């Protein structure tokens, strides 16, 4: 059996230096190799340089997908920092949907050798892949295997840092790689000037709009005008709820009528990360 490691960086493989935690090459690779059963051969692709997950973007998702495609017979473990794990989970889930691949994301809140969660998360990921965990993209974290298409990082300190928000079943994406796009996730808030919303939308190709509740927005006509004008310029805008759980429900409140009339897409129960990836790949 072969196992593909894609090591992007992240806390799990960092050591403390004069300016704080920084990646150290070889640490993760050695830890995984030491944990593999004798019948498993490790193939590896290590980002050069290793990066903090704050710097992950579409080119890196394409690099991961290229490596996964280049090893069609391998289950895959992707070692990744936690801060943008939710974006990468959505990206790989949607891009690989329907291909039958087995991918396990893994990271940690503390580095290897620090007496924290790193070793346990690696052990769980390796055990799941070696013992035939089903197809799909998942996260190995804090004793659980979570579907990666609707992750949110809800805690920036404790080991149980992630939740998996229920999502509608995935369908195959139109595209399977990420083109260059200017993107934004915008959150509506009381007092947001329509001019600020319009200015932000003028700079992007795709936008996720975090709206209130089941799909309402403020009633000021300049807000709906800003959305409509952006949509008419070709900006793809997808709405999601600011609530963690639950789907948007167009038509349930009059305060949402202007939103749906402006050409904004309904993201249903998607997380902001999942909605952004949907726009990118469709």
UniProtKB/TrEMBL annotation:
Q: Where is the signal peptide?
A: none
Stretches assigned to the Asparaginase/glutaminase C-terminal domain? 185-280
Protein EC? 3.5.1.1
The source's domain of life comes to Bacteria
Q: Where is the active site?
A: 11 (o-isoaspartyl threonine intermediate)
The record's top EC class is hydrolase
Name the Gene3D superfamilies on file: 3.40.50.40, L-asparaginase, N-terminal domain (3.40.50.1170)
Task: Tell me the GO molecular function terms.
Answer: asparaginase activity
Which residues does substrate bind? 53, 82-83
InterPro entries from the UniProt entry: Asp/glu_Ase-like_sf (IPR036152), Asparaginase/glutaminase-like (IPR006034), Asparaginase_C (IPR040919), L-asparaginase_C (IPR027473), L-asparaginase_N (IPR027474), L-asparaginase_N_sf (IPR037152)
Q: Which residues form the L-asparaginase N-terminal domain?
A: 2-173
Pfam family of the protein (one)? Asparaginase_C
Keywords for the protein's UniProt record, in alphabetical order: Hydrolase
Record's protein name: L-asparaginase 1
Source organism of this protein record: Pacificibacter marinus
What is this organism's lineage? Bacteria, Pseudomonadati, Pseudomonadota, Alphaproteobacteria, Rhodobacterales
């Amino acid at each position: 059996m072969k196992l593909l490691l894609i090591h992007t960086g992240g806390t799990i493989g960092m050591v403390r230096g004069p300016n704080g935690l920084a990646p150290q090459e070889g640490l993760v690779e050695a830890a995984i190799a030491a944990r593999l059963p004798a019948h498993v051969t490790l193939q590896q692709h290590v980002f050069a340089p290793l990066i903090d997950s704050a710097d992950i973007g579409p080119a890196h998702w394409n690099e991961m997908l290229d490596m996964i495609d280049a090893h069609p017979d391998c289950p895959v473990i992707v070692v990744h920092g936690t801060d943008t794990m939710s974006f990468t989970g959505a990206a790989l889930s949607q891009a690989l949907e329907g291909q039958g691949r087995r991918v396990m994301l893994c990271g940690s809140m503390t580095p290897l050798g620090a007496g924290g969660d790193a070793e346990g998360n690696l052990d769980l990921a390796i055990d799941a892949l070696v013992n035939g965990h089903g197809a799909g993209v998942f996260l190995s974290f804090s004793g659980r295997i979570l579907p990666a298409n609707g992750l949110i990082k809800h805690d920036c300190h404790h080991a149980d840092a992630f939740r998996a928000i229920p999502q509608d079943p995935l369908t195959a994406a139109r595209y399977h790689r990420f083109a260059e796009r200017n993107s934004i996730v915008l959150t509506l808030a009381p007092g947001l000037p329509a001019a600020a919303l319009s200015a932000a939308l003028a700079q992007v190709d795709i936008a996720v709009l975090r709206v209130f509740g089941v799909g309402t927005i403020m009633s000021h006509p300049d807000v709906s005008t800003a959305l409509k004008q952006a949509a008419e310029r070709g900006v793809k805008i997808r709405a999601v709820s600011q609530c963690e759980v639950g789907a948007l429900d167009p038509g349930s409140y009059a305060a949402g009528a202007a939103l749906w009339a402006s050409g904004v897409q309904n993201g249903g129960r998607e997380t902001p990360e999942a909605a952004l990836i949907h726009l990118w790949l469709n």
